[in-house]
Amino acid sequence: MTGRPTLEAIRRAPKVLLHDHLDGGLRPETIVELARAGGYRELPTHDPEELRVWFAEAADSGSLERYLETFRHTVGVMQSAEALRRVAYECAEDLAADGVVYAEVRYAPEQHTQGGLSLDEVVEAVLAGFAEGEREHGIRIGTLVTAMRHQARSMEIAELAVRHRDAGVVGFDIAGAEAGYPPTRHLDAFEYLQRENAHFTIHAGEAFGLPSIWQAIQWCGADRLGHGVRIVDDITDRDTPHPKLGRLAAYVRDKRIPLEMCPTSNVQTGAAKSIAEHPIGLLRRLYFRVTVNTDNRLMSGTSLSEEFAKLVDAFGYDWDDLQWFTVNAMKSAFIGFDERLEFINGVIKPGFAQLKWTGSRTLP
After folding, report:
1. Distance between CA atoms of 223 and 206, rounded to whole angstroms?
2. pLDDT along the chain (364 residues), means of 10
């Protein structure tokens, strides 16, 4: 067996992505073209490379609120069915080129109605773009529709998710600034989803601490936690061979509640000091159900392969570790058990088995 996985080799690995925002992954060239076509005049620059740099610098602030401000421009150019379909198709194309075999991509339909589209028309346009990308690039994509936690449309969006779940919407989410907007504000939506046997995840434990995680799980019944970084606040003696888990941390681990962690984004928003100090290292060592994700590929200037490569550099992970993260993600996906099992046994394990023995050598 060869040495540590290289970025080149990681790109060939069959990967699974659970936390990726559609409006956070646009190509800069596409933003410029859609802005011109749609008459959007607020971009800081119309040079694609300068725009790429602007997004990265604006997002690298250490503040979740400042990070979220960058979405004004991407959402601003995603106000027509044609734009939404194109962005979804290109998302599928870019993820497939990075070796992602299954992805769940989320977006907030309520943010894309300024051009006159209904919520259903927004969903249909995105699903059409993903369907085209699936056919042409061999990737499987499920979508999550997101409600903004500072708004009051969560029940409407939950009903939208249920209405389109047989067409490709696999789940529901709430997102946005956490402080002051606890998940319990949307309890009626979560109770409705549970009655409808629908899946949902909740952004929690990123900018806010343990109370948001506790509410997301124990009050709202979340299937997964978006980020969940602050669960480490319930773990003491972290630097010893035997860290001690508080009752909430132990519950999260014992119940195998998936954590959708996004290392680069977490550093940018101040949820972690650095990749090397990211809680993912401790949580992986303690066998929490940790998954690795991109969050916003444009703002973070990243890909899933690059996220894995950073963890390899920071923690010395090998192919077994990367496969462990990937199987965790596939186990935690919101598609049916049979399809998840088929991906694990028919795609992920064989793909990693080959890479374990070829390592960083170039395949013929």
Report:
1. 17
2. 84 98 98 97 95 90 74 96 98 98 98 97 98 98 96 96 98 87 93 98 89 96 96 96 97 98 92 94 98 97 98 97 98 98 98 82 44
Q: What share of the chain is helix, strand, coil (3-state, %, to 5)?
A: 55, 15, 30
Q: How many helices (H) and strands (E) does the chain have?
A: 18, 10
- Residue 92, amino acid: A
Q: Quote the CA–CA distance of 84 and 130 in Å, as a whole number.
A: 10
How far is 327 from 13, CA to CA, in rounded Å?
A: 12
| 3-state SS string for 272-299 | CCCCCCCCHHHHHHCCCCEEECCECHHH
206 is an active site residue: yes
Element (H, E) at 20: strand 15-21
Binding residue ranges for substrate: 21, 23, 176
Domains annotated on the chain, with CATH = 7-353 (3.20.20.140)
- Residue tagged active-site, from 206, 260, 306, 307: 206
